[in-house]
Amino acid sequence: MSRVRVTAPATAARPAKESREAAQESDVGQVFVRSLIRSQLRLALVVAGGFLVILGAFPLLLAAVPGLAETRIAGIPFGWLLLGVGIYPVIGLSAWLYTRTAARNEARYRDLAGDQ
Amino acid sequence: MNAGVAAAALAVVSVATAVIGFYGLRISRTTGDFYVASRTVRPWWNASAIGGEYLSAASFLGVAGLILLSGTDALWFPVGYTAGYLMLLLFVAAPLRRSGAYTIPDFTEARLDSRAVRKVTSLVVVLVGWLYIVPQLHGAALTIRITTGLPSWVGSVAVVVVVCLTVVAGGMRSITFVQAFQYWLKLTALAVPILFILFVLAGTGYSPVAAPAVNPTGQPPASLYSNVSLLVALLFGTLGLPHVLVRFYTNPDGQSARRTTLIVLGLLSVFYLFPTAYGLVGRMFAPELGRSGQPDAMVLLLPRELVGGAAGDLLAALVVAGAFAAFLSTTSGLVVSLAGVVSQDVLGAGVGGFRLAAVVSAVVPLGFALMTDSLALAGSVGLVFAFTASTVCPVLLLGIWWRGLTDAGAIAGMVTGGLLCGGAMIAGSVAGAANTPAWLAQPAAWSVPTAFAVMVLVSRATAGRVPATLSRVMTRLHTPERPLATGR
To answer: Transmembrane stretches, by residue range (chain A) (predicted)?
Structure first.
């Protein structure tokens, strides 16, 4: 059995790398890159912050409304449904929103930097 | 349990793993080049493979056991394991793919232009990998003891032998197929028995023997500090796990790395509904399993406890098969990524070095697993996440998003985080679980911010050491790839 040494796929990566690094040759290119990084970081922080606020609100809600955690829905206590099931759609929604907006930020960068 | 049925289940999983491995190997051989093959790996396959590798003994056995013991407090474990992937998506996925790095040491060396950083990162990554393999082997030992009555060491040794054989023989090429298969096996192995149990419970009108809020062992609930600290560890620990990063490399570009992560989040969300269901059913219908001192065995024992007969035996065998898939997939993923690091940095490149490194990467944690006893699986994996969050996570996050990071800062931060968190883990295990205060048992809440702070302050003090390649590397990390000529 032969083994392939795992390294970067050089032939495929080269054109992309060259075009991307051409963007930083000029000062204007760097301005665009910095603004892209700032907008992606801002987006990631906003989504993470929003998610953590909702995550924190779940147990607070259960603590604030007495009896809510024990209320049964189809035999299952609401507290279990909220933390065991209800958080996952929030995670999925945050991830989907992020992915969409991050791709949009990159499309805007492409337009500005004239990368296409 | 019927030992023959359990043994047959183990044999089937091992053989299926090997067969798929070799089948996949043949495919990648005919395409000639592994990377041609890897670019045709669809996001669904890749996401299944990531899920297969990520869902370890802690997820398969530990989470349900912990929910049985601690109730809703333990629900933070599956939530944290899943939300950790959200953090990975937000902060790491696309830039890491674009860096072109294959291992975490590759990334830190490229970003900081420093061999010294590479060495320290390698050391940390190897430690993380070893610490993470040990609970997998503990899980295997427990499963073998409970289901076949054989001595515990047989389970740990069997996992290490199967993993060494497949990794030494097949290497990395076929692993995507194996891991993807194991995700779906694990999901089936948890879903079918619990759905059958629920069906039987509904059909017989069997009434609960305890309320879900009742703790079977009478332990006090976890403090707010413990829950918050655990969440910090799980949220920030995931993005530093060595075997997770390797998987991102098989995505063609940064965009698809994000899409893959999105699918992984869906797969994890579906998977974790089932350990949660086991925990809840266990609490309501079989709380005595929580008093046996081995709550991690609950998933293995519940089908026979509540269904019984031949059907119970078959369902239990399915769960055993899924559990072994979990130990095998996580361990082999870790061994492959560790072997890459160890062979590059210590033993020298080449096939012989890789094979030797793979054996070393598996045998060292085996020795440790045989000398120590199984703690609660989810808890010990939680500590590994705390260690990763205190060491690898700061260097990745700051490296990707902050231009000011220097090699000196990265090393100082990783060493500080590693010493603080490692020290807390050692102190905790010496003192014993009963005598360990919460701040020591869950160190992430203070060790992670300290590691970040040290990394930032030392980088500021050594600002002259910012690498000359900085703006080139940052451009590579964050700008989108031009669509490849060969692509869509």
So the answer is: 43-65, 77-98
Contact A92 B171 (CB under 8 A): no
Q: Are B305 and B386 in contact (CB under 8 A)?
A: no
Q: Look at residue A21 and tell me if it is in a domain.
A: no
Residue A92 lies in a domain: yes
**In sequence order, what are the residues at sequence separation of 6 or more whose Cβ sits closer than 8 angstroms to the Cβ of residue A60?**
none
CA gap A74, A81 in Å, rounded: 10
Q: What is the pLDDT of residue B161?
A: 86
Q: Which two three-digit tokens encode residue B452?
A: 């970040």
The CATH number of residue B127's host domain is 1.20.1730.10
- Distance between A9 CA and the closest CA of chain B, angstroms: 6
Q: Could you give the 3-state DSSP secondary structure of residue B78?
A: helix
Which residues in chain A have their CB less than 8 angstroms from residue B353's CB?
A: none
Residues of B in contact with A17 (CB under 8 A): 100, 476
Domains of chain A: total: 1
Query: Residues A35-76: pLDDT tens digits?
Result: 899 999 999 999 999 999 999 898 888 888 887 777 787 778
Q: How many domains is chain B partitioned into structurally?
A: 1
More confident residue, B246 or B453: B453
Domain of residue B167, residue span: 3-375
pLDDT of residue B41: 65
Q: What burial class does residue B409 get, using C-beta atoms within 10 Å of its C-beta: 0-12 exposed, 13-18 middle, 19+ buried? A: buried
The answer as to whether B433 is a domain residue is no
Neighboring chain B residues of A7 at a CB cutoff of 8 Å: 102
Nearest to B81 by CA among B333, B385, B383: B385
Domain containing A51 equals 45-116
What's the rounded Cα separation, in Å, for the pair A97 and A101? 6
pLDDT tens, residue by residue, B388-430:
999 999 999 999 999 899 999 999 999 999 999 999 888 887 7
Query: What is the ipTM for the molecules in this complex?
Result: 0.85
Selection from B160, B141, B159 nearest residue B151 by Cα: B141
B476 → closest Cβ in A20, A110, A115: A20
Distance from CA of A110 to the nearest CA of B (A): 8
Cβ distance B486 to A69 less than 8 Å, yes or no, reads: no
Give pTM, 2 decimals.
Answer: 0.86
Q: Is residue B416 part of a domain?
A: no
Give the residue-averaged pLDDT of B361-380. Answer: 79
Q: Hey, are the CB atoms on A91 and B259 less than 8 Å from each other?
A: no
DSSP-assigned letters across all residues of B153-169: HHHHHHHHHHHHHHHHH
Task: Say whether residue B201 is in contact with chain A using an 8 A CB cutoff.
Answer: no
Average pLDDT over residues B286-300: 77
**Which residues in A lie closer than 8 A to residue B255 (C-beta atoms)?**
103, 106
| Closest chain A residue by Cα to residue B470 | A24
pLDDT digits (tens, 9 = 90+) for B216-243: 666 666 678 888 888 899 999 988 888 7
How many interface pairs between A and B have CB atoms less than 8 angstroms apart?
144
Is pLDDT larger for residue B120 or for residue B34? Answer: B120
Q: Using CB atoms and an 8 Å cut-off, which of residues 302-361 of chain B contact chain A? A: 340, 349, 351, 354
Record: contact B480-A51, CB cut-off 8 A: no
